[in-house]
């Protein structure tokens, strides 16, 4: 803490100022703070589980999860064999890419490549239909880029990054023994820049109405006739029936893509495809590929000086491939039943606080309130770990085939996703692993999920003060529930369907408040990035989540104290707000901070902490005055929920 900074002027700086000055980010990290520290601890815990399961899984039974974990982890940790093989594991793919004859070949190749975990010209995924939440369909999003966002290709401020990107791609081509590395790297940038020109702006992609465009298979083909959809879906592992109806998030991108496909010579597509192959495989190839890949994606893009230890990268591979098998063990060891019971109570109090708050809203009419209550009543909390675990019985790994194992894991997941189409929506499925230090709200199932990994100090602990828990995980719970009522989530009904349940007057009042929050955040300049500003339109959903979440957490804390026959003191409120600020204690490398400011829908941590400026409860707890840095005139404070 920094006693020289008053909480009334800067709560984030008061709680975290000395730490920000004195703490060093670990050399293998791009950021540091409670979130990453908990992730580090979870990583060590998972590593211990993997080592133990790997030691127990030496009986040769490839159907057992312990054996799969043992074989996959061993294949990654066998550095001697990986280095001996060099680029050989992907040589057949590179040779096949060099023989692509036309666009039909390209589409077919991409289907197989994406099935194995590679990236294509667009992103595809399976989820329940935004307007018919009881069925699963395929969604398409813009893609095809090697840099984080279209702005990296088109904005002058990223010109130096583009130059370094081309130099990086050239070195990767050289390592792979590709002809004309320099010319090929320039080709990759040229092709990706053309693709980027058709991308939507980041803030636009948040609009759930604008991005819902249901297309029949015939309409999809008409939208992008330059792409052979039949060949692509067949090699991906599906059929035309898989694409009977799909949702295209950015239809103008697919139109643009069709033009780029036709205008770009097949020779250029061969080069672009080769770059994709090498990039996808680089983390699993010999050390020279690993180091070059890290040098750009770690050092240049994120400012991270040091590659993470190999065992840490091995843990990430296991978690990404067979993560629930490890997560099952993690939950048994690190999430006691007492924590589950306390979390159930916390969630119940947060939902009750939302109900009371909505009841008292002056800007919302009774008709809309009743719909909001209905949505609250159907929220499904998921706490700790899944009620049923994923079946990995058909997945096989081999100790001497790392690239093959990576492909097998991706193919398994692709097949699992495609099998959802035409099947009932599984509302028990988790979208995060139990060991994840995170949380989420899914509008299509109206669920809130809090994995065991985040249910640790400073967010939550069975022996913590109530004020700490409500200022930590209470704010996170409130935030995730708040996503059901943010500018986009509020357009989904209790059953997970896009359905307008607002009266016109209430929607106008809500949009007015959202606009005020956008304008407020547009004016914020991060202390570590002078001259840069927050994108209020991109971050408004998360800001609404923080704003409502923290206010409701404070109200829920009052409910908990009421149940015990107690009242919330001024000191209690201060503890709650200070733990909220502590949870957002974060230090980022400049490159990472700039990237996040460009692409992340969350505001920088300091503004997440200092959203307290909008809360009457904060001003009362710290007795602020108009002379204080966080003071906002009452009429300028944004209060939504």
Protein model, in words:
By secondary structure, the protein is an alpha/beta fold. The chain has two domains: 88-307, Neutral endopeptidase , domain2 (Neutral endopeptidase, domain 2), CATH 1.10.1380; 338-392 and 423-636, 3-Layer(aba) Sandwich (Collagenase (Catalytic Domain)). Helices cover 55% and strands 7% of the residues. The chain contains 26 helices and nine strands. A four-stranded mixed β-sheet has the order 2-3-5-4. Strand 2 (122-129) and strand 3 form a beta hairpin. The longest helix is centred in the C-terminal third of the chain and has 28 residues, at 536-563. The radius of gyration is 25 Å and the shape is globular. The model has no long low-confidence stretch (mean pLDDT 96).
Q: Can you identify the CATH class of the largest domain?
A: Alpha Beta
CATH level-two architecture of the largest domain: 3-Layer(aba) Sandwich
Number of E-type strands: 9
CATH third-level topology of the largest domain: Collagenase (Catalytic Domain)
Strand content: 5-15%
Domain Peptidase M13 N-terminal: 7-386
Keywords: Hydrolase, Metal-binding, Metalloprotease, Protease, Zinc
Domain Peptidase M13 C-terminal: 438-638
GO molecular function: metal ion binding; metalloendopeptidase activity
């Amino acid at each position: 803490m920094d006693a020289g900074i008053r909480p009334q002027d800067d709560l984030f700086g008061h709680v975290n100022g000395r730490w920000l000055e004195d703490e060093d980010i670990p050399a293998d990290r791009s950021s540091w703070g409670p979130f990453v520290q908990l992730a580090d601890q979870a990583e060590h815990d998972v590593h211990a589980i993997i080592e133990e399961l790997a030691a127990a899984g030496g009986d040769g039974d490839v159907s057992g999860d312990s054996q799969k974990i043992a074989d996959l982890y061993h294949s990654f940790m066998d550095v001697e064999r990986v280095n001996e093989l060099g680029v050989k594991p992907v040589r057949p793919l590179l040779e096949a890419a060099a023989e692509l004859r036309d666009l039909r070949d390209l589409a077919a190749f991409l289907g197989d490549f994406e099935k194995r975990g590679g990236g294509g010209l667009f992103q595809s995924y399976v989820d329940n239909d935004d307007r018919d939440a009881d069925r699963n369909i395929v969604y398409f999003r813009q893609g095809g880029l090697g840099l984080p966002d279209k702005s990296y290709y088109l904005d002058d401020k990223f010109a130096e990054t583009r130059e370094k990107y081309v130099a990086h791609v050239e070195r990767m081509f050289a390592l792979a023994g590709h002809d004309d590395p320099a010319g090929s790297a320039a080709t990759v940038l040229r092709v990706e820049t053309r693709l980027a020109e058709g991308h939507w702006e980041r803030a636009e992609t948040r609009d759930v109405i604008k991005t819902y465009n249901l297309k029949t298979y015939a309409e999809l083909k008409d939208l992008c006739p330059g792409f052979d959809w039949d060949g692509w879906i067949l090699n991906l592992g599906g059929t035309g029936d898989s694409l009977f109806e799909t949702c295209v998030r950015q239809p103008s991108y697919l139109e643009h893509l069709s033009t780029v496909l036709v205008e770009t010579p097949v020779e250029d597509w061969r080069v672009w495809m080769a770059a994709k192959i090498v990039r996808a495989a680089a983390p699993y190839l010999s050390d020279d590929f690993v180091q070059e890949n890290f040098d750009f994606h770690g050092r240049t893009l994120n400012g991270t000086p040091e590659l993470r230890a190999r065992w840490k990268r091995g843990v990430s591979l296991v978690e990404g491939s067979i993560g629930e098998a490890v997560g099952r063990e993690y939950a048994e060891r690190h999430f006691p039943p007492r924590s589950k019971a306390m979390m159930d109570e916390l969630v119940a109090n947060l939902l009750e606080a939302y109900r009371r708050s909505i009841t008292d809203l002056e800007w919302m009419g009774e008709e809309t309130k009743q719909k909001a209550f209905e949505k609250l009543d159907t929220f499904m909390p998921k706490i700790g770990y899944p009620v049923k675990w994923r079946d990995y019985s058909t997945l096989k790994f081999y100790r001497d085939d790392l690239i093959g194992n990576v492909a097998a894991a991706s193919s398994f997941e692709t097949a699992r996703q495609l099998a959802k189409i035409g099947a009932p929506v599984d509302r028990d499925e988790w979208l995060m692993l139990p060991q994840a230090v995170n949380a989420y709200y899914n509008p299509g199932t109206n669920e809130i999920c809090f994995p065991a990994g985040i249910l640790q100090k400073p967010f939550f602990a069975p022996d913590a003060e109530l004020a700490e828990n409500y200022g930590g995980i209470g704010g996170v719970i409130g935030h995730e529930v708040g996503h059901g009522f943010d500018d986009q989530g509020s357009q989904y009904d209790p059953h997970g369907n896009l359905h307008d349940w607002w009266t016109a007057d209430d929607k106008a009042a809500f949009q007015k408040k959202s606009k005020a929050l956008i304008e407020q955040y547009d004016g914020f300049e991060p202390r570590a990035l002078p001259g840069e500003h927050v994108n209020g339109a991109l971050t408004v959903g998360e800001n609404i989540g923080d704003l409502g979440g923290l206010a409701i957490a404070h109200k829920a804390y009052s409910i908990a104290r009421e149940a015990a026959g107690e009242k919330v003191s001024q000191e209690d409120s201060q503890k709650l707000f200070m733990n909220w600020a502590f949870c957002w204690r974060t230090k980022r490398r400049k490159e990472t901070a700039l990237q996040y400011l460009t692409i992340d829908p969350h505001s920088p941590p300091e503004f997440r902490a200092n959203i307290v400026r909008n809360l009457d409860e904060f001003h009362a707890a710290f007795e602020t005055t108009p002379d204080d840095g966080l003071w906002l005139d009452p009429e300028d404070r944004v209060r939504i929920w």
